[in-house]
Amino acid sequence: MQIADKTVVAIDYVLKDDAGEVIDSSEGQQPLTYLHGASGIIPGLERELTGKQVGDELQVSIAPADGYGGRNDGLRQEVAHDQFQGVQNLSVGMQFQADSNAGPMVVTVVEISDATVTIDGNHPLAGMNLNFSVTVRDIREATQEELQHGHAHGPGGHSH
Ligand code: ZN
Question: Is 67 exposed, middle or buried (0-12, 13-18, 19+ CB in 10 A)?
Answer without folding.
Answer: buried
